[in-house]
Amino acid sequence: MSQSTDSGSRGSFSGRIGFVLAVAGSAVGLGNIWRFPYLAAKYGGGTFLLVYLILLVTFGFALIMAEITIGRKTRLSPIGAYKYFCQEGKHTGIMLGGWINAIVPMIILPYYCVIGGWVIKYLIGYLSGQGPAVAEDGYFGSFISSSWEAPAYFMVFFACTSFIVLKGVDAGVERASRLMMPLLLLLGLCVAIYSMTRPGASEGIYYYLVPDFSHFSIMTVVAACGQLFFSLSIAMGILITYGSYMKKDVDAEQATSQIEIVDTLVAMLAGFMIIPAVFAFSGADAAEHLNAGPSLMFITIPKVFASMGMGSVIGFAFFLMVFFAALTSSVSILEACVSTVADETHWSRTKCILVMSAEAVVIGVPCALGFGPLGFIQLAGMSILDMLDFLSCSVLMPIAAIATCFLVTRVIGLKEMSEEIKRSSAFKREAVFRLCITWLAPAILIIILVSSIGSALGLIKI
Ligand code: PFF
Q1: Closest CA to ligand 1's atom 2
Q2: pTM above the 0.90 mark?
Q3: What is the tens place of the pLDDT at every residue in 134-161?
Q4: Is the CB of 233 under 6 A from ligand 1?
Q5: DSSP sequence for 326-390
Q6: Cβ atoms 429, 260 nearer than 8 A
Q7: Which of 78, 157, 202, 348 is the most exposed place for a label (fewest CB within 10 A)?
Q8: Where are the domains of the chain?
Q9: What is the pLDDT of residues 297-331, one digit of tens each?
Q10: Whose CA is nearest to atom 10 of ligand 1?
């Protein structure tokens, strides 16, 4: 997203492929490789996967289309786009949705960079030839519980992100990641095949692919929906902003399908690398590891590499590619924050970057310490990182998405929305869009919101 609004004239992507590649660069990141597998492992494997896929093709599709179209029509970032349609005093509640869309990336940025820091730690571990040590059981635990390591690595990852945004060199990073992305897929495929063919792994493949409805709970839907938002960058203003750079004649429906396919394939591949490996390498501890949460990738993947023989080389290559995927996403998150602050305050770009950097450091450092010295800060069993993740994905994003549904149905109007989409697309899935945006999405989102808040406050047990 190197185009800036500073010049007054809005840049645009060269065409559909340019648009799809840019959105995919932002969408494919830690959400696919780190977050998806640990949620799938924790929330029932095949059951989670099925719920995720159903949500993806129904209201995931509708929300992506809605956000891109709102951006394309208004040529504004989220707050401005909401203001464009809403009347002062009449649609205050919906307008609040524009603000929430803008605030979400500010909450995600710090903890995303904490995980980015974990990736750098492993990258350096492999580079310095510590492959076997990295795969040992206590390695991850002692790293994140140390009082300086996790914050220091967070700062390094964050410094890379803000340097790129400050210097405006994201085009170079995008070029590098365009090379890294196919390599990541290729390496991921090899690792997935290796991991699926280990003794004991078939149980993991079964767990990952075959739904067992005894694992189903409303939490499966809450987690799958949060993941859908996180991974596809829905309900965080990003797609509205990208849509505003899209040319009017680009087929938004086809672009949406392509983005969904790429993003989901990468996430599923990461699941194939990690979940069978949990069963193959953790033996009797498999059940405990399935519940490991955010640490899962960092515990399981090194064990796979260690068993491969030349694990250090592959480990280094893998974490280097994950680093690039994470960096393109973190750059787009910081860009989104900066463009919102710049639009609202008219401060210089440098000042906006400095303000957002200060915010990220103030939140990110405690978050990085939340598994060690600040481990006593817990809410409903959640660490600081889990709390920020929960707040953004399970509370604020559903609210922002409900606001988008209401903006489309009550303010813009379905007819006008359809006409706008049909300017460039045959809009084959119009019926799905209408049904989801009017009924299905708001209904599911309200249920999700009530259940997640209720469970965090201990009011309901799910
Ligand atoms: N979708 C990205 C991922 O899956 O890693 C993360 C992300 C990108 C979150 C952009 C938020 C954002 F604004």
Answers
A1: 27
A2: yes
A3: 999 899 999 999 989 999 999 999 999 9
A4: yes
A5: HHHHHHHHHHHHHHHHHHHH---HHHHHHHHHHHHHHHHHHHHHTTTTTTT--BTTB-HHHHHHH
A6: no
A7: 348
A8: 16-456
A9: 999 999 989 988 777 888 999 999 899 999 999 99
A10: 333
